[in-house]
Amino acid sequence: MLTIYDRRIQRERNSSCGGLMATITQAQLLLLVFLLLLQAPGHLVSAALGGEIAFFNTTQMTPGVTHRQNVCDRYDEFRKGNVELKDALEGIQLHVLMGAYVGAYFNYDESTGIHPDNPGLAALLMDELGRRGKFTWRDTFGVFYDPGQYGESWTDVLLWGVDTYDINVDWWAKNLQRMNLGVAFLNEWYDSSIILITKETSTEISDEINFWNWLRPYDWRVWLLTLFTILLSGLVSQLLEWLGGEYNGCDDCSFWEWFGRNFYLSAINFTQVYEFTPKTFASRLFGISMAL
């Protein structure tokens, strides 16, 4: 899932804006969700041509640096009813942190910038949000890379990102540790749950008894193969006995009666009841294979 994060900053609660800034953080997040759900276009729109280079070059995990913006005035206008929620971010240049590591949903190169034809899913979502909310982000973004090269964890880079930028856009996992640390999560835009769907067909319910229902578990081809296997097993067993010198496997019976007996025993073996009594070594081996 692709999730956008923001965080309440304790120092903002102690500033002149006080608890208002903490509330604004949540308002920004709710606004982004609202913009996504406001309409359902047939495709995502990317107005920029690509090639934008990251505006912020702050070294990853650098403490004490912030690019966060004060939007108290916008929140006041929304609270007073002077502006609709969907227009609260109109004209602002959001300071966004985007993941640009290998495998990220953001196709970015340090020398060529954002890919013009395939910017990545994260960029497409931000472009669509910007189109609906009338704000921009491509000229005021920063990037982060795999935190392993800095000896940090993904949670560390997540917390640093939301402390330093307005929002942190990437693929993140929601867990209690991050929530307890103050990270606010948006609702997922995509549900990747495994759902089995089948087309409902109407069937007529009848009280009539169908005596051929016992054939329904298998296709006719399976039944035909089963019958062929039973017949072939009886023939092979009889052939092995005959090659071993046991020309007639039963006393006072003809060759065809002997074959009929083997066919019957092979059919019984199909029901997991083994009744063969082989007399030669080869037929005994074959009998073991049938019993298994």
Topology order in helix (H) and strand (E) letters: EHHHEEEHEHEHEHHH
Determine the strand fraction and express it as a percent band.
5-15%
- Helical segment count: 9
Record the strand order, biggest sheet.
5-2-6-1-7
How widely separated are the two ends? 48 Å
**Would you count the extended β strands for me?**
7
User: Could you list the spans in which at least 5 consecutive residues all have pLDDT below 50?
Assistant: 6-25, 40-48
Quick check: average pLDDT? 78
* Helical proportion, percent range: 25-40%
* Rounded radius of gyration (Å): 36 Å
**Largest sheet, if any?**
5 strands, mixed
Overview of the structural elements:
By secondary structure, the protein is α/β, with parallel strands linked by helices. It is built from nine helices and seven strands, in the order βαααβββαβαβαβααα. It has helices spanning 10-13, 19-38, 72-79, 121-133, 154-164, 176-180, 220-243, 255-270, 281-291; strands spanning 3-7, 96-99, 108-109, 113-114, 141-144, 167-170, 183-185. Strands 5-2-6-1-7 form a five-stranded mixed beta sheet, sandwiched between helices. A two-stranded antiparallel ribbon has the order 3-4. A hairpin with a 3-residue loop joins strand 3 (108-109) and strand 4 (113-114). Helix 2 (19-38) crosses helix 4 (121-133), helix 7 (220-243) crosses helix 8 and helix 7 runs antiparallel to helix 9. It is elongated. The model is unreliable at 6-25 and 40-48 (pLDDT under 50).
